[in-house]
Amino acid sequence: NAGVTQTPKFQVLKTGQSMTLQCAQDMNHNSMYWYRQDPGMGLRLIYYSASEGTTDKGEVPNGYNVSRLNKREFSLRLESAAPSQTSVYFCASIASVEQYFGPGTRLTVT
Amino acid sequence: DQQVKQNSPSLSVQEGRISILNCDYTNSMFDYFLWYKKYPAEGPTFLISISSIKDKNEDGRFTVFLNKSAKHLSLHIVPSQPGDSAVYFCATSEGGTYKYIFGTGTRLKVLA
After folding, report:
1. Which of A62, B46, B92, B93 has the greatest number of CB atoms lying within 10 Å of its CB?
2. For residue B91, what is the nearest residue in chain A, using CA coordinates?
3. What are the pLDDT tens digits along chain B (112 aa)?
4. How far is A107 from chain B (nearest CA, A)?
5. How close, in Å, is residue A66 to chain B by CA atoms?
């Protein structure tokens, strides 16, 4: 039982490049989330998916797209990376109340 | 405007003493409150929670207190241990929604 896994762990992009962050959970949870963590800002919600087939914007969705591929997988895509998207990205899933987080992806955009 | 605030960015406490971490919120519709702990290079892990129908919840060395009239939440750790050194986030949600709002975190250092 791996919980929530994220790939890659680290990534460096040049401005304008695109990439997809992958997230998978093996706990059969319905809801999944993407957050970014920046110094002094805590965790800010980018997008969430309440159930398979649905996605909704969070607090900071601009510049991102998501896909809930199936119940297990929820990916985050940066179409044209910007330096302001340099951050640590966390995926999470939830059964009832408490969220289970992945180990994070550290992304640097130069 | 931040709906959930942790006004102390850092806190140092001697081993064996009590650690008190605070969190304030603005929305009286929030009805579930959680604390997460985060070590460097790891994702946050759930620590303890409380619903708005209670004013206290205890789990071992960890106790969460909720003061709804003051819109204030606190986490007490007694006794504090060096392994408790981490960043602590409070989080809250409004009933019926799937959105969680996190505070900015407090870095706790427990000195041996």
Report:
1. B92
2. A43
3. 678 999 999 999 999 999 999 999 998 888 899 999 999 999 999 999 999 999 999 999 999 999 999 999 999 999 999 999 999 999 998 776 778 899 999 999 999 9
4. 13
5. 16
* B1 close contact with A: CB closer than 8 A: no
Phi-psi region of B41 (alpha: psi -120 to 50; beta: other; left: phi over 0): left
- Cβ-Cβ contacts under 8 Å, A35 against chain B: 102
Q: b or e along A29-53 (b: 16 or more beta carbons within 10 Å of the residue's beta carbon)?
A: bebbbbbbbeeeebbbbbbbbbeee
Determine the distance in angstroms separating the CA of B112 from the nearest CA of chain A, rounded to an integer.
27
* Chain center to CA of A31: 13
Chain A positions in Cβ-Cβ contact with residue B46 (cut-off 8 Å): 98-100
Number of neighbours of residue A80 by Cβ within 10 angstroms: 11
Question: Which structure tokens are listed for B7?
Answer: 């006004």
Cα–Cα distances in Å, from A103 out to A92, A106, B110? 10, 10, 24
Closest CA to A91 of A108, A110, A67, A109: A67
